[in-house]
Amino acid sequence: xxxxxxxxxxxxxxxxFFASSSAQQAKVTRYVRYALKGTMSYGILEGENIRPVxxxxxxxxxxxxxxxxxxxxxxMTPCQPSKVIAVALNYKSNLGDKAPAAHPELFAKLTxxxxxxxxLILLPTDSTNAHYGGALVIVVGRRAKNISPAEAPRYIFGxxxxxxxxxxxxxxxxLQWFRARSSDTFGPVGPVIAQGLNYDDLLVQTRVxxxxxxxxxxxxxxxxxxxxxxxxxxxxxLQPGDLIFTGTPGETKAIKSGDVIEVxxxxxxxxxxxxxxxxx
Length: 280
Hints:
By secondary structure, this protein is mostly beta strands. It is 14% helix and 37% strand.
């Protein structure tokens, strides 16, 4: 088990540091949340090592003088949000024949839907048409209420990768998207929170069993990161650590038990999860 985990850690590092050069031009800090010997901690990823930090990562975290090996820890969801918001139909390639909306079309995901890197995606027994949904995910860094788009960048702590899974059949049949979008494990996020990238021009790719299924840059978002954060803050008060899925590009397809889904965001790394059928 440990050898398998180490291999995944090496894959993560390669995914992070062989990203395209455009994502590495500026100083980028990558925060992780990890478990080591039963203790949860935050840290800063430095190559194949993690430098633990004390205090609140959103308020001047203090780096330690020592490091731990990435291969020796289990990466968790990169933060613990009070709420998770998502934007629908936010790429032109995902609109089909629909006209772009006048404002971001929002829905909520339950925090209980979140899982971290390498965690299993559990497909419920009666799920027959669950789709992947690779996305850039905004991580809020400061309390935000009624802020303008111009102010919004100061409230964005960083970004991570997300997989906004959806059971399409339930989307059509149910009154709301409660179970379609918020079933347990339907919100993988990670592996890191990357700070210092150009969030509005990053490549988002989704691969299923190694085959590229989605590939688009965030410059093609209908509403960019600042517009999204500003709009959401008009209606709900955002808190440090809250997550906002910015939308998924192109068309999606159903996944099946045994599929391995990888969402890679340029400069962030690879979020990898395997889907399995729940048997009851």
